[in-house]
């Protein structure tokens, strides 16, 4: 991929000589017009994805949030598993004035579309996310979903019913809707399946300077073998490390 916009680090996200929000935007480029799937996750020093409250916010930091927001700014879709939505109660995804003209010039919708994957369709329909986001959220499910829950989902979301909700079918459906710039914000189950299908092009990983007790991490069955990425840059702030890894060959 292009080296344009690449920064070398560690570089500061906090303090007087910190990177600006636009520096951060350039540090997380979306290469080309085609598919690019980036995984955005925070982990603790002992590998936990959540804190004692079972939420990722308690192991995050203001510096981590800067990266989280920077990566979203030019994304077409924010892809999450149902477990993450049930736990994290996403707020509405709204267009931001600072991004309007850049997104319009690039032919993008005014704001990213939240896309949720769920077999059960047991989702928190009471959230303002569904009706107060700039773009209507998408829900992916399977043809064998419960009829009553399918009807409920149709009332709240742009429902995409797939024969099989394989990672490839999900990503292909997003591309078909002209949403090829995809940031997968978790959780660990969905991320594992995307990696296993070789669909993660980039992993933007924050390492928080805390231990949480690994027993608190969501449990996922292992991949058949480890999948290697290479380090593109490292940033730091609030004693937190934020790393950008690229998949082999990207
Ligand atoms: N540290 C971080 O950066 C981070 C990021 C995100 C989440 N989290 C935390 O991780 C926890 C959730 O983890 P998780 O791994 O259980 O959640 P997840 O991957 O977000 O969700 C798993 C659920 O997503 C649905 N799903 C995933 N792939 C599917 C597929 N191919 N077809 C159909 N449905 C599919 C299923 O939902 P149904 O059960 O509805 O069928 C499944 O039970 C939460 O505590 C959250 O706070 C941490």
Automatic annotation (TrEMBL):
It comes from the Bacteria. Keywords: NADP, Oxidoreductase. Pathway: Cofactor biosynthesis; riboflavin biosynthesis. InterPro entries: DHFR-like_dom_sf, RibDG_C, Riboflavin_Biosynth_HTPR. Pfam families: RibD_C (PF01872). Residues 35-233 form the Bacterial bifunctional deaminase-reductase C-terminal domain. This is Dihydrofolate reductase family protein. It comes from Flexivirga alba.
